[in-house]
User: Fold these one by one.
Assistant:
Number 1:
Amino acid sequence: MLPVRPSAEVRSLLALRRSAAKQFISEPGPSPAALDELLQIAARVPDHRKLAPWRFVVFEGEARSRFGAALAGILSARSAPQADIDNAAGLLLRAPVVVCVISSPVDDGRTPVWEQELSAGAVCYNLLLAANASGWAGTWLSEWPAFDAEAGKLLDLTATERVAGFIYLGTANVSAPERPRADMAEKITRWA
Ligand SMILES: Cc1cc2nc3c(=O)[nH]c(=O)nc-3n(C[C@H](O)[C@H](O)[C@H](O)COP(=O)(O)O)c2cc1C
């Protein structure tokens, strides 16, 4: 298979892609079978030494509110403001399907963790692209559960694993306004 497949359609998708606003991702979402296909595509990323240094935790249906209840319990035990507790309970209910992408570096004694984490980031982005190309809206969020040790326990994070992102997937009926993009002239230099 040639490593090049010219496609005006893919080019246009990449040139115009954007995330959905997190408040406007509604039902329906991809079925479990459709999601498995998206994840198969998402995992097709550059990955130094073929370590597959990532894993996925899928939240569908009731699992979203159960995870939310556990997050709310964490905040409640810390006597957090009630508004934060309520917010935590509903976090994953903002989309029909949420995929937590976990960076899971492999200690092979020679592949830098940084490279493995970058591969996990590529998985997140590839999942968004696969979703968009399949007609689903998505957005990549971290928010506090990505950085909280107790929330990490709910995901069975090991000492070296980190949440790369929660990818919210569903249907967007509201168009998202374009956001400012980087001034590429400021970003690109040519080494001389
Ligand atoms: C690693 C990562 C974490 C993010 N976490 C959040 C977040 O917690 N909350 C938020 O509002 N946006 C977050 N964002 C930004 C959203 O994904 C944002 O909507 C997106 O960058 C919009 O740009 P786009 O339309 O080009 O995708 C995050 C982005 C990245 C790359």
Number 2:
Amino acid sequence: MRVLMVQSLSTEGFGQEKVYPLGSAILVGLLERAGHEVAFLDLNVAPDPFGDLSRTLNDFHPETVGISLRNIDPLANKTSSLIPPFAAALQLIATRRPQARIIAGGTGFSLFPRRLLREFPQISYGIVGEAEVSLPALLASPDHPPSLPGLCHRQGTRVVVNRPARRPIREYYPAPTKLLTDPALYIQANRYVAPFGVETKRGCNIGCVYCPYPLLQGKKLRCRPVAHVVDDLELLHKEHGIGSFHFTDPVLNAPPGHLEAICTEILRRKLSIKWSGFFREDLLHEGNVGLFERAGCECFSFSPDGLYQGALDVLGKRLSVASVLQAARLASRTGVLSVYHFMVNVPGESDDTCLEGIGLLETIYELHAVRKNLGTVVLNNIRILPGTRLASLARAHGAINGDTDLLYPVYYNPKPFDTLRYRLETLQQTKNAFMWMGE
Ligand code: B12
């Protein structure tokens, strides 16, 4: 079958940081191995996204089009949506290739499968969650598919969404083959983000109140074998010249020992690469921080989210301020940059908690000022997503009601602390400026 895989627009503007579409790349490889003729188009690096899509549809005349919706919106307190370009792409596909089946998937799709299938009749099927097994199986019998994990389809006026696949990742994860597109398209576009992602595991067992990761990848940590992870890094580095990676795991240094083993293997193979990822603070210690640095860590991304103990507790982080500061202390003594993400105006905010939060930010800046190794501090209001405990909490507090449309950006930011973010950003930007000038 001729299959076109399309990566829908993931950011609001062409100048934004690019991310190589790892999920689509895995699926393209598997479909080719299953004998399909596959073409791929990433609208994010296409010079003329819709013109290029139209030309590809006309030239390749696919029988099936798979469309990946990674992001529904850009987060970061912004109110723009990535649904309009997704809708435009669907309409273009349906107009140019009316006989082709459209199958949707990706993280953005997986957060709103019912809503998107109802709103967009152009979509024939969807798959929520990971699709390594279900997409090839769906294409093997597209007219009468069996009840596959994650499959979404219409039954009369109803949309049926099957439970997503959660099999041990080592059973089906393919070794990477060729790259989908020229790596330079991604590398040259970016200033901060390493565009090439590598997974060491799937799943997240923490259960923070606002977070959809357990919905997307399950609560159980499903690790890839260490050698497979390092094989990916080695191949991408040696064959394609890629020197910098982002490990895409929700929490990179969990479970204890897995990242340490990967680092030991990177060092054993003498791979001269750089990498980054999101670290859990209470799993960083004197014994592993140096190993991470030696193995190429170029940025410790922390997302403690809570600026004081009450916030950490209400967000369900299962973390203490002491652990956040201990991790900051350890990271600040290295030659590696650190980036911190915090959420502002969380449920239960008061004048006192604002001061506590400011105190924590000041301490973090003081620690990192010595070696000037604080990349930045990112301050966000919380995007409310369906199916999370925050959505119920926000409903109970009256911040949203049953009619609130969560498909489009809705942030938890009730009065009277709705402008707190600007106060904290003023502090953060002033501290940043003076830190880099060494004052
Ligand atoms: C790692 C990551 C990042 C890294 C990426 C680094 C890199 N080089 O890859 C960084 C930190 C840079 C990042 C940035 C952003 N991210 Co991000 N990111 C993730 C994360 C944790 C993992 C994504 C990943 O690579 N997974 C591994 C791949 C293999 O899985 P996958 O993409 O899901 O693909 C599978 C399935 O979805 C499915 N599938 C995928 N495509 C298709 C297509 C079809 C047809 C089918 C059937 C199935 C299918 O099958 C695939 C294989 O199983 C997810 C959350 C999560 N746990 O999933 C958020 C997530 C995707 N990010 C999100 C967002 C919003 C962003 C940013 C906009 C945030 C920001 N303001 O900076 C940017 C956008 C960057 C961009 N250009 O797209 C959101 C998207 C939801 C939303 N609100 O829109 C998520 C879900 C996190 C969240 N907060 O909810 N991100």
Number 3:
Amino acid sequence: MKVDPHDVFKGKEEITCSYVPKFPAAAEREYLHLVNGYMRILKESLEEYIPKLRDILREDVRTDSKETEKERKRQRAENFARMSASMEELFRRIRRTMEQKMDLYDIARRMRAIANKTRLLTVKEWKKAIGRALGIDIFEDYYLGEFFRRELDAWITQNTDLIQSIPHDALGDMKRVIYEGYVAGRSVTDISRDIQKRYQVNRSKARLLARDQMGKLNAEITEAQQRDAGIRKYTWRTSKDSRVRKDHKRLEGRTFSWDDPPVVDTRTGRRGHPGQDYQCRCIAVAVLERDNLHLPV
Ligand SMILES: [Zn+2]
């Protein structure tokens, strides 16, 4: 390192970066956009077959105004095998329709674009943090190394699989709701409403998953960046709002080693670094040690 220690460190062994890197929100928006696209595919595929679905559910029920839920239940128990065969066939068709639509999406390429954007944004923030702390400019393309590529590739593969499983899982969930409603003797209108509700639930779940995955990628890149620069310690920074979990609040402002993560869950004793926990928005702010820096200047 060619940093003049008298200027920056003022005789100290180490300093903590004053700049707290920002979360790659623009990349997260793209991921959410992708998730919404996939949920839309599910919705469209499902809507295409709703009339057929209503037919299947309805054909067994003799519509009699005096008919009670109990009577419907009895009839449906009798007709279950026939209904179930039609239903399975219908869901196979919905799945096929969905897959055809998903094939047009070029998901792996889009995932790669999101991962690359995250990397660029994270490097930019890292550059800012180092620039403010040490007054030096680091190379951005330095972080295109083999190590980074491997980590990004793993994330891309994992998330490509993950996002493709979302509509499939959601569809399975809806099928379950239909069967349960059918057996319980719920009316077709009620079952349709249940499907709508499940769709909303699955959509929110998918959005949370996207945010979580972005947080994990950001955390991974941050760790790789810092270790690469010879940084051994970081200061834990929470987002300091009401959503920060108690166990992370406890860690705010404290310094930890990359080789020895603190306990992030006092109940289980599980350990971790900032951003690794589900939906965690905490940040690892680098502690720069005067004699242990390898920065690409
Ligand atoms: Zn956190």
Number 4:
Amino acid sequence: MPQPHLRTRSKKQIKTTVPGGKTKTHYKKEKTSTALCFLCKKPLSGIPRLDATETRKLNYTKKRIWRLYGGKICPKCLKDAIKQAARALA
Ligand SMILES: [Zn+2]
């Protein structure tokens, strides 16, 4: 019987043969999904692909991109959005 915290389907199970010849199940933590641009759905660069516990340990400046809508919109979409807003004013 696996340990209580391993009794879940969210962890990837890998069957491996141990040196003794027995087949055992190893539990692997799944990686969190990448941050995506909410306009074009392309993956964002500069956002670390870590879970909440590991993200908490990072420096304040390494958790996000220090730009307007950084970590939410990719630079290309932001550029287009700013252009559109400027055109709407003129
Ligand atoms: Zn985008």
